[in-house]
Amino acid sequence: MQTITTKKALDEFVSNCKSENKTIGFVPTMGALHNGHLTLVRRAVAENDICIVSVFVNPTQFNDKNDLANYPRTLEADAALLTEAGCACVFAPTPDEMYNADEMTNRFEFDFGGLDQVMEGKFRPGHFNGVVQVVSKLFRLVRPDRAYFGEKDFQQLAIIRRMTKLMNFPIEIVGCPIVREESGLALSSRNALLTPEQRQTAVHISAVLQESTQFALETSVGELHDAVVAAINAKEGLETEYFDIVDGDTLQSIERWDDAEYVVGCVTVYCGKIRLIDNIRYK
Ligand code: PAF
């Protein structure tokens, strides 16, 4: 596997693949790779001639300086895992290689069509501007045929689909199901920041979501919402930031189960200081 750190070297690598008519599968990541990422990578390897993975902790999508500083950075271990998974090239640039000073400081403008006004967008202002900024830049550099994203970041996936359409990228966006530990905990790079006790506590989030599917459609949306929030918060060490039951396509909250055909419950919970997200499909 090649490790590339400059845009120029990446362009040469990609141009070579294109001249040989090889298809490219791309997995953008911020590193600290776990089995969830590796599931995306293995799929990209299986479905394309060449798999490229980016490892870049994107500063413009962090609205909290401490979160950016504390984000785990484990490039050596990541590279070993990627080699084993069959990835052909890892692109790991520095922030200076990716951005000029203006791009670092000015918010990247994008017409989200309201997708950024809810859930993560409401609690992390500017976050999705940074995500669209970096992913559109990476798409231009990597020029993939397919790009793979996890459904755990449900809102991000919807926004990336919109961006791909609006910016006319000829790229197939492949959404992949959440990968969970045996305990049910959704895999996340942030899990590495949990103490062993917090890890046990965090399992409660997915357990509550899973249990809620059993009575979801028999109670009102409002009652289900309140029951889920109460059940999560009842566990010491957990505090729900939001739980939204939304139309899976528009991400707008629904009031009745009949309001949408595809319904997903999206939650963000603080486990101590660590912010965890998860979601579950109801319909
Ligand atoms: O999901 C992530 O890890 C990031 O938001 C992404 C898509 C790699 C952009 O920095």
Q: Could you explain how this protein is built, in words?
A:
This protein has 283 residues and is α/β, with parallel strands linked by helices. Helix content is 41%, strand content 19%. It contains eleven helices and nine strands. It has helices at 7-19, 35-47, 65-70, 75-85, 95-98, 101-105, 119-123, 127-142, 154-166, 196-212, 221-233; strands at 2-4, 24-29, 50-55, 89-91, 146-150, 172-176, 238-247, 263-271, 274-281. Helix 10 packs antiparallel against helix 11 (221-233). The model has no long low-confidence stretch (mean pLDDT 97). Pantoate (PAF) is lined by residues 28-30, 58, 61, 131, 134-135, 153, 156.
Query: pLDDT below 50 for ≥5 consecutive residues: which ranges?
Result: none
Distinct ligand kinds: pantoate
Please summarize the sheet with the most strands: 6 strands, parallel
The number of E-state strands comes to 9
| Quaternary structure state of the chains depicted | single chain
Give the tags.
binds pantoate, three-stranded antiparallel β-sheet, 11 helices, 283 residues
Could you give the topology of this structure?
Elements: E1 2-4, H1 7-19, E2 24-29, H2 35-47, E3 50-55, H3 65-70, H4 75-85, E4 89-91, H5 95-98, H6 101-105, H7 119-123, H8 127-142, E5 146-150, H9 154-166, E6 172-176, H10 196-212, H11 221-233, E7 238-247, E8 263-271, E9 274-281
Parallel strand pairs: 1-4, 2-3, 2-5, 3-4, 5-6
Antiparallel strand pairs: 7-8, 8-9
Bound molecules: pantoate (PAF).
